[in-house]
Design a protein that fits this description.
With 133 residues, the chain is mostly helical. It is built from 7 helices and no strands. 76% of the residues lie in helices and 0% in strands. It starts with a helix and ends with a helix.
Length: 133
């Protein structure tokens, strides 16, 4: 490795996705954070001993697993947290009415702006807003 190659500043994409990990610690705090995590992963799982194609294969599997985990957390976690809140209300208050009452109040509060807008439009047209719903 030449001095010029060793001296160059690496980008975040090179730190995260390049099979050849740069030896020099980056100057930026964010780049240094990800560089240290990458070094930790490579040393812990002996990725530095692998050939470049093996390293790419393992990194693709790791990134795919992280992508699936992030997708699951984004789509499933909010629904599951609502379910857990309802179960906690059931265990704490003894009935499902306490959980459903809070959901009804939240729905009414969220739809207030829509109902007010429909009432304004209905008053202009001369119809009741509940007749159209």
């Amino acid at each position: 490795m030449s001095y010029h190659e060793w001296k160059r500043e690496t980008s975040l994409l090179q730190i995260l996705f390049d099979p050849q990990l740069p030896y020099r610690k980056p100057d930026s705090a964010l780049h240094r954070f990800f560089w240290r995590r990458r070094v930790w992963v490579e040393v812990t799982f002996a990725l530095s001993m692998l050939e470049p194609w093996e390293k790419v294969l393992i990194l693709v599997v790791i990134y795919a697993a992280l992508l699936l985990l992030g997708t699951a957390a984004f789509f499933y976690l909010p629904h599951h947290l609502a379910f857990l809140r309802a179960r906690a209300a059931y265990y704490l208050f003894g009935s499902t009415d306490a959980a459903s009452d809070s959901l009804v109040r939240l729905k009414d509060a969220a739809s207030w702006g829509l109902n007010a807008s429909l009432a304004n439009v209905g008053s202009l047209v001369g119809k009741s807003p509940s007749a159209e719903l």
